[in-house]
Amino acid sequence: MPKNKTHSGAKKRFRITGTGKVMKEQANKRHLLESKSSKRTRRLSVDQVLSPGDAKKAKKLLGR
């Protein structure tokens, strides 16, 4: 049987922690940062835990 390939887009966007949670980077921190407050940009820097429904799909794409 051939092996399943990991979804290239998913592996760039998500990572799985040691405990099995799926983490993602927060959106809105790529450009136009001058207009955003420091407080907001710091908050956006922190990685987010994916919601249970999305995590299930992401794990499937990552071959877990």
Structural account:
This protein has 64 residues and is of the alpha+beta class. It is built from three helices and three strands. It is elongated and about 55 Å long.
Task: Annotate the secondary structure layout.
Layout: H1 8-13, E1 14-16, E2 22-24, H2 38-45, E3 48-49, H3 52-61
Antiparallel strand pairs: 1-2, 2-3
Number of helices: 3
Structural class: alpha+beta
The succession of helices and strands, N to C, reads HEEHEH
The number of E-state strands comes to: 3
Helical proportion?
Answer: 25-40%
Distance between the termini: 18 Å
Percent in strands: 5-15%
**Model regions low in confidence, pLDDT < 50 over at least 5 residues:** none
Reported for the largest beta sheet, the result is:
3 strands, antiparallel
| Overall residue-averaged pLDDT value | 96
Q: Please compute the radius of gyration using only Cα atoms.
A: 15 Å
- Large-scale geometry: elongated
Widest β-sheet, arrangement of strands:
1-2-3
In brief, what are we looking at here?
This protein has helices at residues 8-13, 38-45, 52-61; strands at residues 14-16, 22-24, 48-49. The protein is of the alpha+beta class.
List keywords for this structure.
64 residues; alpha+beta; three-stranded antiparallel sheet; 3 helices; 38% helix; elongated
